[in-house]
Fold this protein.
Amino acid sequence: MNQGCPNPKCKVHQQVLFQKKDGHYFREDDAKYIQRFKCKICSKKYSTATFKLEYKQKKRRWNQFIRRDYTAGKSMNRMAMHLKLHPKTIERKIQYLAEKARRSQKNLLQKLKKNQISEIQFDDLIASIHTKLKPVSISVVIDPNQRLILGARVAEIPAFGKIAEISNRKYGRRQNLHPKTLDRLLYELRENIASNCLFKTDEHKRYPGIILKNYPKASHLTHKGERATVAGFGEMKQRAFDPLFQINQILAMFRANMNRLFRRSWNTSKTQASLQEHVDIFIDYFNEELRMNVKRCKKI
Ligand SMILES: [Zn+2]
């Protein structure tokens, strides 16, 4: 979209009234004619491409493939090999795709504000950065009725269990930022979630306090973690009725579709920021494409 003169010092900055058409150019990258403009006041030249997030990209055609493959368990190196792009290009494109995904998710939440959500489920995935000794949690909040992921945030947590001592010795004390991050996420979703909403979670000891703080009128049901068991040749089998089926199923999809979250994966996250980027891209792709595979889910 044309947003008018991009010169911040110009009197008619971001106004379309004082612009005139100034020819066009052919963009070879995606074979499109791009309209150019010129500001009548400051003579600044610009085009419809100036305001796009893809501005100055030279390989636009590959964006959709990277988005599709990155959320289908493909590694960054394999994408570089198959698309014949430099690994650095893939890295940059992922940063761009993450920004685009965040904007799209923000728009979706804005749209959903009209119909506030009456039921929420949330839970955490445990992942790690660089080594199992540096674990992180990914808090995921969903709307089970529309099968929508509302948000997911990565947070540093200390190592627990047998490796706690080794982790402490090798990498020092790790902060527990999980409660703060989850609290922040629920706070940010306050305009989408009804104040008398029903929260369904497992029996994590910190959850009731965080819910009560952000939604004092809400009700909270806890269920024992009745995870699906792995049976036979390793497929998922449900043992009994699972009241938290929707959230467990979506967490399983995170694990099945993001290479770095695979069990016994050769891929690891190198930084927390890149893990968050991957999560952001997955949320957007899930809400837009994957959730529609279930018949009852309609396009929003
Ligand atoms: Zn101007």
